[in-house]
């Protein structure tokens, strides 16, 4: 299944339920943040366990929720998600050139 097919399925799911009327940018952005917080809960109190592999199924569900809300927000804003990601990746490539950023976690202002 392609990204465009999934995007169409998400928007069809929304439209079949007449939910677009509730999907203003503010509430969709809040929903993205809330779902991202639920993804973070998968790692809460994990101590030194950085993977939390036993929680992977829940992580997948929460990540899917984040992405679904992002797709609905992009639709509401008239943003093509693929083009937005491509543009952002180009910006990041300029901020983090391989020769300066490779193997480093520093912010671009510190490279």
UniProtKB/TrEMBL annotation:
Entries under InterPro entries matching the protein: dCTP_Pyrophosphatase (IPR052555), DCTPP (IPR025984)
Per its UniProt record, what Pfam families does this chain match?
MazG-like
Organism phylogeny: Bacteria, Bacillati, Actinomycetota, Coriobacteriia, Coriobacteriales
Under Gene Ontology molecular function, one entry of this record is: nucleoside triphosphate diphosphatase activity
Please state the span of the N-terminal signal peptide per the UniProt entry. none
A biological process from GO: nucleoside triphosphate catabolic process
Q: Which protein is depicted?
A: NTP pyrophosphatase, house-cleaning of non-canonical NTPs
């Amino acid at each position: 299944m392609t990204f465009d097919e999934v995007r169409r399925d998400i928007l069809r799911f929304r439209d079949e339920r007449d939910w677009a009327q509730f999907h203003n940018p503010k509430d969709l952005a809040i929903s993205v943040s809330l779902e991202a917080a639920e993804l973070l809960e998968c790692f809460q109190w994990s101590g030194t366990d950085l993977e939390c592999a036993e929680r992977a199924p829940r992580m997948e569900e929460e990540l899917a929720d984040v992405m679904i809300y992002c797709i609905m927000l992009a639709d509401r804003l008239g943003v093509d998600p693929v083009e937005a990601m491509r543009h952002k990746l180009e910006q990041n490539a300029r901020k983090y050139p391989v020769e300066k950023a490779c193997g480093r976690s520093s912010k671009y202002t510190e490279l």
